[in-house]
Design brief:
This protein is mainly alpha-helical. The protein has five helices and no strands. The chain is elongated, with a radius of gyration of 21 Å.
Length: 137
Amino acid sequence: MEEDLFPARMVAVLSATFAALAALLSALGIYGVLAYLVVQRTREIGIRMALGAKAGDVRWLIGKEVGAMVLAGVAIGLPLAYGLARLSESLLFGVKAGNPSAYALGLGLIAVVALAACWIPARRATQVDPLVALRYE
């Protein structure tokens, strides 16, 4: 019985490995794009800080904008993911296309990555002296 199940187990392990690798690559991509967008706004952040904005207010502003982008991505991606899962449902043993825990895990991962992607560079940008940020190109 062990020999008969070996190919199925190997496919399952390889599928899980490739899925984890895909999740890691997508997380790195999301982080890179969002961090780049925040770094591009360093000059704007410097102007806001020079005019008296508090660092927390600037971080909140950036967080709201990134949150809106993430919500737009979820609104587009969630129905697509469900539709593609329905197409591949026959290939998965014991997994249904409407598995809420899988969707919740994916959405949680995206939310954590997006929060880190905007929080870390925004915190770094708000700690820069406004005069230095104004000269930043």
